[in-house]
Write a structure and sequence with these properties.
- InterPro entries: Solute-binding_3/MltF_N (IPR001638).
- Keywords: Signal.
- This is Solute-binding protein family 3/N-terminal domain-containing protein.
- It holds the Pfam family SBP_bac_3.
- This protein is α/β, with parallel strands linked by helices.
- It folds into 3 domains: about 120 residues, no CATH class; about 130 residues, Periplasmic binding protein-like II (D-Maltodextrin-Binding Protein, domain 2, 3-Layer(aba) Sandwich), CATH 3.40.190; about 100 residues, 3-Layer(aba) Sandwich (D-Maltodextrin-Binding Protein, domain 2).
- The protein contains 11 helices and 17 strands.
- The strands form 5 sheets. Strands 5, 8, 9, 10, 11 and 17 form a 6-stranded mixed β-sheet that branches.
- A hairpin with a 6-residue loop joins strand 2 and strand 3.
- Helix 5 packs across helix 10.
- It is globular.
- It starts with a helix and ends with a helix.
- About 25% of the residues have low confidence.
Length: about 350
């Protein structure tokens, strides 16, 4: 090779390198997308760039799975990222800058030291937390006579088993306070929780599954004082209403500012009601019946309290809550929603809920 030819080749190589650096993925894109809390954009990033070595470079086959569209030979090329596309002009020396697919977008993530879960893959075991307080007939401890076992049973227990067995996905369930459970899922330390109604705050903090059961809203009142005048759901806002700490009362038409949630348990709320610190205590009828059925206090037939259904109130819809902070949030939501259906809900309601409700008859 002559000295002139060698100098020309070196110049071409340097020009190609400059063009590549000038038009490669902007560093700000990685700052905006690779490091952002939500990594949805990361999962969409499946390509890296390299200079194409003229005629000797391999041409990608049109329609291949790794490259849906053959690289263009025009002067403007585009690559889709989590944000707006940006253009890649042809190098000044005539060598085209091509998009080379890598085997998997996950490989790129691993090169940047990220976990495989950043690709959206579900972990080996999904981590679920539930309220330490029992929520019969949906989630509670099995009884053997008068002995309380540590085995979880109920409608939600069976629903989780059906969902995850169908998906062949492992999961664990941990009991803790309801406040802590919600915080752990919100932060991404745990993956999901169950038995939750919707609220604006929860819709921002979590992904909500489809409705998988509903309940009937009731209110308790003290027999020692005149029964509160509640003719519609709106009348609840005129009263000093008590609930439980960490619970949402959106189905009752009440926001956090409308309910005194100082009590941590139903029994504590009922003591507040008896002491005259509340006009009414809100609860779900099916849960109150379930508590009586498993041997807890039967507030429905308590001499100190009466109850009524809230006039005009539709049923409370219950969901599973998925953390928005785990990289596989959308995959987990799809898995859960795929397992929720009317046939399963009806079958489990007949199995787990109706027999408990019939005990009250």
């Amino acid at each position: 090779m002559s000295r002139q030819a060698a100098q020309q080749q070196t110049a071409n190589s340097e020009q190609t390198s400059q063009d590549f650096r000038a038009h490669a993925i902007p560093p700000q894109w990685f700052a905006d997308n690779m490091l952002m809390p939500s990594i949805a954009a990361i999962r969409q990033m499946f390509f890296i760039l390299r200079p194409r070595a003229g005629k000797r470079g391999k041409r990608m086959r049109q329609g291949s799975p790794a490259c849906p569209q053959q690289a263009s030979t025009t002067s403007q090329r585009f690559i889709k990222t989590g944000g707006e596309p940006f253009s890649l002009p042809t190098a000044a020396n005539g060598n085209a800058i091509m998009i080379k697919p890598i085997a998997s977008g996950c490989l790129l993530l691993l090169l940047y030291g990220l976990s495989p879960h950043a690709c959206g893959q579900l972990p080996e075991t999904v981590r679920i937390c539930v309220d330490a307080e029992e929520w019969p007939p949906f989630f509670y401890f099995e009884r053997e006579g008068t002995r309380v076992t540590q085995r979880n049973i109920g409608y939600t227990v069976d629903y989780l088993q059906a969902i995850f067995e169908q998906a062949r996905q492992k999961y664990t369930v941990t009991r803790m306070s309801w406040i802590r459970c919600q915080a752990e899922v919100k932060s991404g330390n745990l993956d999901m929780t169950v038995d939750a109604v919707s609220s604006p705050e929860r819709e921002q903090a979590y992904l909500l599954s489809k409705t998988y059961y509903y309940t009937t809203g009731i209110y308790f009142f003290s027999r020692a004082r005149p029964m509160p005048k509640i003719h519609s759901q709106a009348d609840l806002k005129t009263l000093h209403v008590c609930g439980q700490h960490g619970y949402a009362y959106q189905p009752f038409g009440l926001g956090p500012q409308d309910v005194d949630t100082t009590p941590y348990t139903l029994s504590a709320a009922m003591m507040q009601l008896k002491a005259g610190h509340c006009d009414a205590v809100l609860e779900e009828k099916e849960v109150a019946i379930g508590m009586a059925a498993i041997g807890l206090t039967n507030y429905l037939k308590h001499p100190d309290f009466g109850y009524r259904e809230v006039p005009g109130m539709a049923g409370s819809d219950y969901h599973m809550l998925i953390s928005r902070q785990v990289p596989y949030a959308s995959q987990l939501l799809r898995l859960v929603d795929a397992g929720i259906n009317d046939e399963l809900s009806a079958r489990l309601r007949r199995k787990d809920v109706d027999p408990i409700l019939d005990l009250r008859q």
